[in-house]
Design goal:
heterodimer; A: 241 residues; alpha/beta; Rossmann fold; 2 domains; six-stranded mixed β-sheet; four-stranded antiparallel β-sheet; B: mainly alpha; 13 helices
């Protein structure tokens, strides 16, 4: 099996601020990898570049071997993503929104309608599928975001703080969905919640100031630093949010 | 899936968004209210409707003109809103070229505003038919100019939406540009005998021109006299030049908005 995601010397400046400093990382196919780091470490910037939302200042990024800079549409067809806390078109219903995004991905007809029902049921929003999203809580929008990321059954999931806004029950359900999806997909998952990452991912990459500090299995980091939390604290200089 | 098919999907769902929002119906309501006021107040204030059907038709173009201005409210958030409201985090992660997305949004806005314009012209045609028993053929020319004016206004709004951080800023900047700045400069240029066809407000004025010139309208309302002296230097607007002006805004505004939007990043 190859690498689903390849990041090579990725550098990103926001004016004079260096957000990513020659970051290099490979995410093997079928693995669930957590991306950890303090605020401003460069996690979201990395994921946004992988989703073609940002252009890097230099470096390369590949998704399933496709250069995200040269062929963004082709690369995006392999990805399901939740970036930050996304907002949906509030005057449309979940079904409308999912229909829109599904159609943009080439899905249509009965197959799309069936898949929309499946993912809405998966995130337990059946009763809300025909209600305008303007009435939704943050947690419900996050559930819907998870539904849209799974809609086209992509081989790669890129998730940036996907548990934000979810209540404890929602977090457990979310974890089960991602864990189940992760058995068949590559998951690249940025979060501050170390316990969530530990429950979902096999390996973690810890970054700070745009640089890779460690990239290892959770078991190996726990052996080396006593716990994942200690590894995170020691590697990122004791700064924890 | 081809870009053309994706364009169709964007148009369909962006138009659905317009249908689900209140602003479409608010603009329609305002345009109809203005038409109703014109139909009620004109006979009250001047002892009946004008004898000339084209004069009345020209006066009723105020409704469609307002409907065309609705383009600003449809397009103000078309680009800026995706960044400001963070909906772009979902939309932009779909496999679609950005220019296809912006073009689809433009065409959806155009369909919405064109529907408003068609509706107001149907109202005008019915009113003229009831009052005069005829509808002047010039109404088709007026309709074409109104649609062109709406398209140009839509392009200008797209441009401001592309350069603005927020939807409100884009809407306000476009309104200021189209109604205030362009209107003031047009007045100055027109009454000092200089050409002003290149101003977007001139495009708005041209909507009534198929029914007759400004001088004809003024004399039709008995406003010759002193105003004739004031308008001594007035540079009349030709439909042809106004069309060129609007075409320039349409093309340049649209191309510039796509060029700028394609370079915008969602941080």
């Amino acid at each position: 099996m190859g690498d689903s995601i390849i990041i090579e010397n990725l550098t990103k400046y926001y004016n004079d601020f260096l957000a990513l400093d020659k970051l290099t990382l490979r995410v093997p196919e079928g693995e669930n990898i957590g991306l950890l780091g303090p605020n401003g470490a460069g996690k979201s910037t990395t994921l946004k570049i992988l989703c073609a939302l940002l252009n890097p200042s230099s470096g390369k990024a590949y998704v399933d071997g496709i250069d995200i800079l040269k062929q963004p549409e082709k690369a995006l067809s392999h990805i399901g993503a939740i970036i930050e806390t996304p907002e949906f078109y509030s005057y449309l219903t979940p079904e409308d929104n999912l229909n829109y995004f599904g159609r943009l991905r080439g899905m249509k007809g009965e197959a799309l309608a069936k898949r929309i029902k499946e993912v809405i049921a998966l995130v337990k929003l059946e009763k809300w599928s025909k209600v305008k999203i303007e009435k939704f809580s943050r947690g419900m929008k996050q559930r819907l975001a998870l539904a849209q990321s799974l809609l086209h059954d992509p081989p790669i999931l890129i998730l940036d703080e996907p548990g934000l806004g979810l209540d404890p029950r929602g977090l457990v359900e979310f974890r089960e969905i991602i864990s189940d999806a992760g058995k068949r997909k590559t998951v690249f998952f940025a979060s501050h919640q170390l316990n969530e990452v530990a429950l979902i991912c096999d390996k973690v990459a810890i970054i700070n100031n745009g640089q890779l500090l460690a990239y290892d299995s959770i078991a190996s980091l726990e052996q080396k630093y006593q716990s994942l939390e200690q590894a995170y604290l020691q590697l990122t200089g004791g700064n924890i949010e | 899936m081809s870009d053309f098919e994706k364009l169709g999907v964007v148009i369909k769902y962006e138009f659905l968004k317009h249908l689900r929002r209140r602003r479409l119906y608010i603009i329609l309501g305002i345009a109809l209210l203005v038409e109703a006021l014109a139909l009620i107040l004109i006979p009250v204030l001047r002892d009946g409707y004008p004898s000339d059907v084209t004069l009345m038709a020209g006066m009723l173009t105020v409704g469609p003109s307002l409907a065309a201005i609705g383009a600003i409210f449809f397009a103000g958030d078309a680009i800026a809103g995706e960044y400001e409201g963070k909906t772009g985090f979902l939309l932009f992660t779909n496999p679609i070229k950005r220019y296809v997305l912006w073009t689809g949004k433009y065409l959806a806005g155009f369909i919405a505003v064109a529907a408003l314009i068609i509706f107001t012209y149907i109202i005008i045609a019915i009113a003229l038919l009831v009052i005069y028993g005829e509808v002047p053929l010039a109404i088709l020319g007026s309709f074409g100019l109104c649609v062109l004016y709406a398209s140009a206004t839509l392009s200008i709004t797209f441009f401001f939406s592309a350069v603005s951080k927020g939807s409100m800023g884009a809407t306000v900047m476009t309104l200021l540009f189209v109604w205030v700045i362009s209107g003031i400069v047009e007045s100055i240029l027109a009454f000092t005998g200089n050409p002003y066809w290149f101003l977007i407000s001139a495009g708005g004025d041209s909507i009534a021109l198929p029914y007759g010139s400004l001088e004809q309208f003024m004399s039709g309302f008995g406003m010759g006299g002193h105003l004739a002296d004031v308008m001594g230097n007035f540079e009349p607007l030709s439909i042809g030049m106004a069309v060129w002006g609007m075409l320039i805004y349409l093309v340049v505004g649209f191309v510039a908005s796509i060029w700028i939007s394609n370079r915008r990043q969602l941080a």
